[in-house]
Amino acid sequence: MSNRAAWLKRPKTQLEVDDAPRAVAGPGEIVIKNVFVAINPVDWKVQAYGPPSHHYPSILGQDIAGEVVEVGSGVTRVRLGDRVIAHGIGRATQIDKYSAFQLYSVAFEIAVSPIPDSLPYEQAVVLPLAISTAASGLHQKQFLALPYPTTEAKPSGRTILIWGGSSSVGTAAIQLAVASGLEVVSTASTRNFALVKALGAKHVLDYAEEAVVDDIVALLRGSDFVGGFDAISTSETLNASADIVHRLGGGKLAKVLPGEPESSYYDVELGQVSASNIFLKEKIVGEAVWGKYVPAALASGKLLAKPDPLILSGGLPRVQEALDTLKAGVSATKVVVEL
């Protein structure tokens, strides 16, 4: 299995397609022949900003959908020929074989889920990093520590704020929270209200409305409020999210990016999530979400692969264009590349 990859060979340069090492599965690992990969903001940001901690040359990408072509020792949940999605953790480990933007990737079994035949690769590939990011914030002990999701969840009467419900992470967070028995209040633009409602949010409010913070507080006041998850985490959204949590009596607010709200609240505990930690540190979360919930929920149709993909065909040479497309801005869609 000869391999090729879209390499980032030097800081702040364009991707270059070139040969890559042959993918080999170690214990507890599989090799995937990648059919589709998806683009996330972290990909273009690493390319554009060249963080000092990043190694070169390197392969980017974390969202994978494809076919299992090799299975390492000890793997029990997938078999040769299975259609799967995977969260590639090359960025976290600084090991390129685990990254997405190549023809063949190695993945940890714990970060892989089979997908049903009815779910196209191009739709399924939007999920992996979003699921892991949402799971980190919702289920890790240091963040919101919600019960693990299940396909048979019963309403618990508890409530949660998820800011940015139509984003990739927001769509996953809403679904995991509902599958954990929570009632979700979320935000989106008016054109994405139907999407966010379809994912299970009880209430969706227009983030652009001047009174949105007051309206959310009014909806949630008096409920058993567990805290917030800011799936956008700009300074503006953190200001709003933190203010809401504070006005509801304080608590935890999970965020996906560095940064702080302009006002400091003594009773709001901010925490930045790290998607790979559910595989590398708190593995019980990865097992509960990826090992149990995701395969069952995809098979039953209870986990929707959203947002919809914007597809670029043409293989690895199109990955750079895909990065540029996402950097320019998209809404309620995810840029994916057919390999």
Task: Report on the architecture of this protein.
Belongs to the zinc-containing alcohol dehydrogenase family. The protein has eleven helices and 16 strands. It has 339 residues and is an alpha/beta fold. The chain has two domains: 156 residues, Medium-chain alcohol dehydrogenases, catalytic domain (Quinone Oxidoreductase, Chain A, domain 1, Alpha-Beta Complex), CATH 3.90.180.10; 141 residues, NAD(P)-binding Rossmann-like Domain (Rossmann fold, 3-Layer(aba) Sandwich), CATH 3.40.50. Strands 3, 5, 6, 7, 8, 15 and 16 form a seven-stranded mixed beta sheet that branches. It has a six-stranded parallel beta sheet with strand order 11-10-9-12-13-14, sandwiched between helices. A three-stranded antiparallel beta sheet has the order 2-1-4, with no helix packed on it. Helix 1 packs across helix 11, helix 4 packs across helix 5 and helix 7 runs parallel beside helix 8. The mean pLDDT is 97.
What topology emerges from the helices and strands here?
Blueprint: E1 3-8, E2 16-20, E3 29-38, H1 41-49, E4 58-59, E5 63-71, E6 83-87, H2 90-93, E7 104-108, E8 112-114, H3 121-124, H4 128-139, E9 158-163, H5 168-178, E10 183-188, H6 193-198, E11 203-206, H7 212-220, E12 224-230, H8 235-247, E13 251-255, E14 268-272, H9 277-280, H10 283-300, E15 308-313, H11 319-328, E16 333-338
Parallel strand pairs: 9-10, 9-12, 10-11, 12-13, 13-14, 15-16
Antiparallel strand pairs: 1-2, 1-4, 3-5, 3-7, 3-16, 5-6, 6-8
Helix pairs in contact: 1-11, 4-5, 4-10, 7-8
Protein name: Enoyl reductase (ER) domain-containing protein
Keywords: Oxidoreductase
Family: Belongs to the zinc-containing alcohol dehydrogenase family.
